[in-house]
Amino acid sequence: MTLGTEFILWMAGAVVWAMSGLIVIRYYLTDAELAGNNPGGGFKYMYFAQVFAGFAAFVLVQANDTRDSAAASIAQETSALRALVLVATASGMDGDGSISAAVKAYGEAVAADEWREMAHGARSPSAAQHFDRVLRAFHGAPVASSSRVATEMGSQLAVSAVAARNQRIDVAAGNAFDKMLWTAVVALALVAIAFNWALGPTSVFIHAVTTVMLSMTTAQMLHLGWLMGNPFTGTAALDPVHFLALPGL
Question: At what angle do helices 148-173 and 31-91 cross, to 10 degrees?
């Protein structure tokens, strides 16, 4: 499914939700009753809309931070591994090519297996094993053939790669707070649209247009937040190309 197709489906779902409720409400309420709801209901809706706007803004900021954190962890991890290979090769620690081969195999395992697992909030045992092989290959390299500075640099790069990998997996797993926040925002969005069904002008056309516009705008916000807040799944997921480009023999 392409991003354009997904967007159309979100908008279609918003229109269906808006119109289905509007048809039911207008079947049971007359134009006069709808107009009578506007003074009191409109005042209450203004307060509710402010609460929803605050939650929506927080969700978008949180989702953007999640995507930025995922992208930063990927860049940090792959950069550290690439630098580790360069340091090991230049210092003679990787004379047999075991470190380079382990890094290359790890990158391929992440792209082929772990990316799919992260879409479900999990990590890949296979990729974890390949990562352990990278660390063992580095720490088992002949120290006598390398300089002390190269060894210290390599150790720092290995630690940086471990931290970045853990951060990437944590971002993919999410947390209970994010789930609670999304539950609240989706519920508020549905109520915001449903609230608008009982408020409106006597014109059926104007009522339908305003309700559909509100529903589509809300759906766009939710869709954008969903895309940014799920960096490893969906049509706008981050690409594992950096792991496939890791150097190796």
Answer: 160
Pairwise CA distance, residues 218 & 89, whole Å: 54
Residue 37 exposed, middle or buried by CB count within 10 Å (0-12, 13-18, 19+): middle
State the Cα–Cα distance between residues 137 and 140, nearest whole angstrom. 5
Question: Is pLDDT of 132 > 90?
Answer: yes
Flag whether pLDDT at 145 surpasses 70.
no
Among candidates 146, 134, 144, which has minimal Cα distance to 91? 146
Residues 6+ apart with CB under 8 A from 70: 168, 171, 172, 231, 232, 238
Q: Which pLDDT score is estimated for 162? A: 95
Q: What is the mean pLDDT of the chain?
A: 86
Q: How far apart are CA 226 and CA 60, in angstroms?
A: 9
pLDDT for 4: 82
Dist. CA 215–CA 206, nearest whole Å? 14
Angle formed at CA 101 by CA 97 and CA 80, multiple of 5 degrees = 100
Token pair of 164, please? 């970045």
Name the token pair of 145: 């053939």
